[in-house]
Model the fold of this input.
Amino acid sequence: MLELHVQPGAKRTEVAGLHGERLKIRLAARAVDGAANRALIDFLAEKFSVAKSTVKIESGETSRRKRVSVRSARSAPEVLLSA
Done:
């Protein structure tokens, strides 16, 4: 389970360190019609080398504060902190 702070509408999609106790992720997609949530799922699926269907936003669909689960991840969460 990942505790995230998501910033939509950024210049590029990237991990931006910590925001309090949550990992901050900047998304190039805007928060319109679910585009930012789809971009988040795509980004995490790529980082963890899993299918998009294994990444699920458990809470925070309409919030910047999100809880996301990644099933069958082939990488540890630390992969998000690597460049």
About this structure: The mean pLDDT is 92. Helices lie at 35-48. The chain is about 15% helix and 35% strand. Residues 10 and 62 are 17 Å apart (CA to CA).
